[in-house]
């Protein structure tokens, strides 16, 4: 099997595959040779290859680069002579664009299964990879034309991840991921910059930040290049959700200005319940 | 000395005072007799008293109830014959309203020092109190008419808290606390309810939430009654800040729609730096 991209997620996937079955042979390609050297020395991959060599010989191809590169790789794959039984899958966060880009491959009868393991870190690079980073989290599957047998085999290949697999449509996936990941990131980046501007304007020492502020803004430590790419890769979904949030904040302001403590208490109690239910799932 | 309100913060303050000097005698009053029984049994307070008895005999009065009760207590204190050397202080999150309410006392020559230890928890009640909850955090001081000697003596009384004391004006305090605490809470409550509504509308299983979402929304576990009271106690500051945030989100949408990855990357890089600096302070 072949992994294109040995960054944080690609290398973590490789570790999970080796943990599941150490006899599986993994070839890999990365723009950064250090990732390949590191993971080869750690016996996580068996061989560093170029993209064409890796792709044409593989029974499973995992595309584990940023979304825009995954789309380029899918275009490249459509030009190559792949094994007829190959399963092509990916780990990208944008499934509608990726499923669209997989169409030429699918038209040639190649099987494509969209995938997205739901975990990450503000760290990046194979040196921070770990089978534990993804383990026991949700793994979304957006199937295009893979057989049930291929899907089962793929789940078996990463069994050590003990994933919570969830199948859904590309559109629902993108809405959900935008809501639960992109929107919180957009908010955290915006909030932290606004707080900084206002404190500078006041010219005061804000002291040591409270734990609540640190928690709310932890994702603002995430990689700027990656997030600039994610948010612009599918602008409609995230900007529509930001508009929704602006409207909900408008309603909140109305309740606060009206001094409607009962309505606020009811809204916050509902939020309490939802948040506690979420935590119970982990 | 006398503490009015033995909830999470009041009882934690009592524990810090006893830890600093076990010979200090603490009287306390609380609407919930269980808090008094618990803290007396734990030797955190020496005697449960009624408000008038506690206030009239004390050399230091700490008002540690919710903001609206602190304001009522200040009105009550203005009617009582207090010791002439008494220092009245509080732990409330809204300093302009509290300093205003202290004016009748100040007019009588009583010394008032506004205070606000910057830590908390989604838990409440004396049973969750701890000297560690507040320890080593920022303690804001908004002085009205206390002498330097009284301020030093008060700092000495709670020395075991190893606080990072910061003095500032009531207006700056309220702007800062609204920015760094009220706004993140308002956002977290709003975001979690919006996510819940959208997922219900999609009718899908969202799987196990990622760590980033859990962090961003942790403060939505906070006490609904307390937060409905906090946000309505000074509506102008928080609603102005929500309006600012809505405008900053509008700018973010413009950058995303324009596909301006460079501008986004620059903004996110700045957020990275600010967030990392904050963490370095803890």
TrEMBL record, chains A, B:
Pathway noted in the entry: Amino-acid biosynthesis
Domain Prephenate/arogenate dehydrogenase: 1-282
PROSITE patterns, alphabetized: PDH_ADH
Highest taxon, organism lineage: Bacteria
UniProt cross-references to InterPro entries, sorted A to Z: 6-PGluconate_DH-like_C_sf, NAD(P)-bd_dom_sf, PDH_C, PDH_N, Preph/Arog_dehydrog, Prephen_DH
Family annotation (SUPFAM superfamilies): 6-phosphogluconate dehydrogenase C-terminal domain-like, NAD(P)-binding Rossmann-fold domains
Keywords of this entry: Oxidoreductase
Keyword Metal-binding: no
Keyword match Ligase: no
Family according to the record: Belongs to the prephenate/arogenate dehydrogenase family.
Protein name in UniProt: Prephenate dehydrogenase/arogenate dehydrogenase family protein
């Amino acid at each position: 099997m072949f992994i294109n991209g040995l960054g944080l997620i690609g290398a973590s996937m490789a570790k999970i595959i080796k943990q599941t079955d150490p006899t599986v042979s993994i070839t890999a390609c990365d723009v950064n040779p250090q990732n390949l050297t590191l993971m080869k020395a750690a016996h996580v991959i068996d061989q560093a290859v170029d993209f064409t060599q890796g792709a044409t010989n593989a029974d499973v191809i995992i595309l584990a680069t940023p979304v825009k590169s995954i789309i380029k790789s899918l275009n490249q794959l459509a030009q190559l002579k792949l094994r007829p039984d190959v399963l092509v899958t990916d780990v990208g966060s944008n499934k509608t664009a990726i499923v669209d880009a997989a169409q030429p491959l699918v038209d040639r009868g190649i099987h494509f299964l969209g995938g997205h393991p739901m975990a990450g870190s503000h760290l990046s690079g194979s040196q921070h990879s770990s089978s534990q980073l993804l383990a026991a989290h949700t793994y979304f599957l957006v199937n295009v034309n893979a057989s049930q047998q291929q899907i089962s085999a793929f789940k078996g290949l990463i069994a050590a991840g003990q994933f919570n697999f969830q199948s859904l449509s590309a559109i629902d996936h993108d809405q959900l991921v935008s809501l639960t990941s992109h929107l919180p990131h957009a908010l955290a980046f915006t909030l932290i910059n606004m707080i900084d501007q206002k404190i500078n304007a006041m010219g005061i020492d804000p002291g040591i930040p409270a734990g609540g502020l640190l928690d709310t803004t932890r994702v603002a430590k995430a990689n700027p290049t990656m997030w600039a790419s994610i948010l612009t890769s599918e602008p409609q979904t995230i900007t529509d959700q930001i508009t929704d949030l602006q409207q909900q904040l408008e309603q909140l302001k109305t309740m606060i200005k009206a001094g409607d403590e009962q309505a606020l208490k009811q809204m916050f109690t509902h939020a309490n319940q939802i948040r506690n239910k979420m935590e119970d799932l982990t």
